[in-house]
Amino acid sequence: MELNIFLPHLAYVEIDSLIFFPALLVSILMKVRRYYKSLAFSIGIVGPLYIVWDILATFEDSWSFNPKWVLGVQIVDLPVEEVFFFIVTPFATLLIYDFVRTKVSDREVSWITRELMVSIALFLLAIDVFLTEYSYTFIVLIYLSSSILLVEFLDPEMFRSRNYWIFLGLTYIPFLIFDYFLTSLPVVVYGPHSILGVRIITIPIEDAIYSFSMMNFYTVFYRKGVKVWNSA
C-alpha cells in the first residue's frame, strides 16, 4: 500500500530533511562536542566512494529512482537528494557516535580481535565469489569486507571499543525508519537479479549490510580526523 505522508516529487527531500534538521537542532541545543572539521574530512573521503558506486549501479540497473518521488534535478545520473543523502547521513549518525563517546563509559571488547575481524572479512570475500549474479549483494560485500580491513589497518582500537558497537546498534533505529520509507514508497527501485530477495519488511538485507559498511568507513575517518586535529 502506497504511503501518503509525503508530497510527490518532494518525498526524498523530506526524508533527507527528517534526517538532517533534527540532528542539527540536537547539535545546537545539546552539550555534545562535535568535530566539524573531522566530519567534513570523513564525508569528503567516504561520500565519493559511495557516489561513484551509486552512479555505476544506476547505469547497470542495479537500482533506480522512482521519478514520482524525486525533484528531477540530477548530478550526473543521480537525483540531487541522493547525493545529499551521503552528507546528511554521516552528519546525523556521527552525532550518535559523539553522544555515545562522551556520555557512555567505554570498555574494551577483548574477544573482538584482529584475527577475528580479518577472518570475517576474508570469509565474506570467499562467499562473495558465489554471488556474482546478484550485483548489489556482490558489491556490498566487497565494500563491507574492505571497510573491516581498512579499520584493522588504520584504527584497530575502533572495533575493540564497546561504544562503537553501541553506536552501530543505535544507528539501525533511524536506518529502519528512513530506509522503510525509501523502499516502501518506493523511492528506490531495485533491478532484476540485483538482490537476494531477503527483506526486513520492505528493506533488502543488502541495505543493512550497506549501512554497516558506511558506518565503518565514516567512523574510522572521523576518528582519524579527531586524532589529527584535536589531539590536544
How would you describe what is shown here?
The strands form three sheets. The protein has a two-stranded antiparallel sheet with strand order 1-4. The mean pLDDT is 94. A hairpin with a 2-residue loop joins strand 5 and strand 6. Helix 2 packs antiparallel against helix 3 (80-103). Helices cover 66% and strands 6% of the residues. The protein is mainly alpha-helical and 232 residues long. The protein has one domain.
Concise overview:
With 232 residues, the chain is mainly alpha-helical. The protein has one domain (11-229).
Output the number of helix runs: 8
Quote the beta fraction. 5-15%
Helix content: 55-70%
**Domain count:** 1
Query: What is the number of beta strands?
Result: 6
Sum up the structure in keywords:
two-stranded antiparallel sheet; globular; 232 residues; 8 helices; mainly alpha; 6 strands
Question: Which helices and strands occur, and which strands form pairs?
Answer:
Blueprint lengths: L10 H19 L6 H24 L3 E3 L8 E2 L2 E2 H24 L10 H15 L6 H20 L2 H4 L1 H23 L3 E3 L8 E2 L2 E2 H25 L3
Antiparallel strand pairs: 1-4, 2-3, 5-6
Helix pairs in contact: 1-3, 2-3, 2-8, 3-7, 3-8, 4-5, 5-8, 7-8
